[in-house]
UniProtKB/TrEMBL annotation:
Assigned keywords, A-Z: Cell membrane, Membrane, Protein transport, Transmembrane, Transmembrane helix, Transport
Record has Transmembrane helix as a keyword: yes
Family of the protein in this entry: Belongs to the ExbD/TolR family.
GO cellular component terms, semicolon-separated: plasma membrane
Localisation: Cell membrane
Native species: Pseudohongiella spirulinae
InterPro entries: ExbD
GO biological process: protein transport
Pfam families to which the protein is assigned, alphabetical: ExbD
Protein name per the record: Biopolymer transport protein ExbD/TolR
């Protein structure tokens, strides 16, 4: 019995479907990808070389010391809670929410303590506040 002789051909792989799938995946990822920047605040920090602003008579001074303790008009608060600071600000203002708040923070105070003070000022309903700085090279001995 004789078997028919088969000729062996080199096996060929058709790459066309593979290339089509790769292009479809590429198009899919290009269409579904969103190119957004991370949420960031663009902040232009003010320079401290400006001339000192004139001090207002009825402004309220909020001091944040290096330990994160708050004082209002040189009166130390009982605790560091935002609600205590907010309530005391309302009491000192006597209902006049148009008064200027001057926020004075020690350079060594934590960022969180300053942000908490800013938040309390905003929650109290004040229309604005200023942040105190010192001139470059100014001696700190008169601030103590």
């Amino acid at each position: 019995m004789k078997f028919p002789r088969r000729t062996l051909e080199d096996p060929a792989i058709n790459l066309t479907p593979l290339i089509d799938v790769v292009f479809l995946l590429l198009i899919f990822f290009m269409v579904t990808t969103t190119f957004t920047r991370e949420t960031r605040l663009a902040v232009n920090l003010p320079e401290a070389d400006a001339a000192p602003a004139e001090q207002q008579q009825n402004q309220i001074e909020v001091l944040v010391n290096q330990n994160g303790r708050y004082s209002i008009n040189n009166e130390l608060l009982a605790d560091n809670l935002r609600d205590t600071l907010r309530d005391r600000l309302i009491d000192v203002a006597g209902g006049n929410l148009n008064q200027t708040i001057l926020l004075i923070a020690d350079a060594e105070s934590s960022h969180q303590a300053v942000i908490t003070a800013m938040d309390a000022i905003g929650q109290a309903g004040f229309s604005g506040f200023s942040i105190a700085t010192r001139q470059p090279g100014q001696d700190d001995s008169n601030n103590e």
